[in-house]
Amino acid sequence: MIYIVIPTYKEKENITRLVKVINSTIDATVLIVDDNSQDGTLEALNSLGFSNLVVVERKTERGLGSAIRSGIKTALDKGAEYVITMDADFSHDPLYLPYFLDKGKEGYDLVIGSRYIKGGKIENWPLKRRIISKGANFLVKFFLKSPLHDNTSNYRLYSKRALEEVIKCDNANGFEFQICAIYSIIKAKLKIGEIPIVFRDRENGNSKLTTKEMYTWFKYLLKLYSSS
């Protein structure tokens, strides 16, 4: 069974269209984890009436990492063999979903949708965001010795073996979850790989990345480094 886990917070303008495009691209269960959006996101989802749509509503919890972890736990409980995580804002094009699955079936436990390998690129990002992303990836490669070119992309596939490792990242509740997941999978000596994607900046809504979250991410990276 394949689950697509998508965290949402105020994504009414994007999410229903995204679910429809996913359904026309791949046969999978779409699992939305919503952090108590107040913009009508849940109402829009419930109006779809799709049998392959699961919505987890969180009233008090917050954070990208904890939302993904919650979605992964739910998917595992329902018998998931693969989980693909992606953003709700169309920066991750659903057309790549079959390519992730093909790579997973080749025996890869973690497949990253990479912006930084041949064939991958970023469109419509301001220079500041490009610098932050490049800098973050440099730090992960330097401190954690990751062989991956894109360690911060949330567009990724996990095998069941990988899922059982990443749910142990129970203290990574924000953007740091992505590096904890990679670190855990590398330590477990599972097979990792990348496929190229074109990342397009969101057209609707606002980015969830804040200065405070970047600082928390960096402290967490140092914590992983000191424990390695």
TrEMBL record:
CDD domains xrefs: DPM1_like
Residues of the Glycosyltransferase 2-like domain: 4-166
GO cellular component: membrane
InterPro entries named among the record's database cross-references: DPM1-like (IPR039528), Glyco_trans_2-like (IPR001173), Nucleotide-diphossugar_trans (IPR029044)
Domain of life of the organism encoding this protein: Archaea
SUPFAM superfamilies the UniProt entry points to: Nucleotide-diphospho-sugar transferases (SSF53448)
Phylogenetic classification of the source organism: Archaea, Thermoproteota, Thermoprotei, Sulfolobales, Sulfolobaceae
One Pfam family here: Glycos_transf_2
Entry's Gene Ontology BP terms: dolichol-linked oligosaccharide biosynthetic process; GPI anchor biosynthetic process; protein O-linked glycosylation via mannose
Protein name: Dolichol-phosphate mannosyltransferase
Family of the protein in this entry: Belongs to the glycosyltransferase 2 family.
Keyword Nuclease part of the UniProt annotation: no
Keywords: Glycosyltransferase, Transferase
GO molecular function terms attached to this record: dolichyl-phosphate beta-D-mannosyltransferase activity
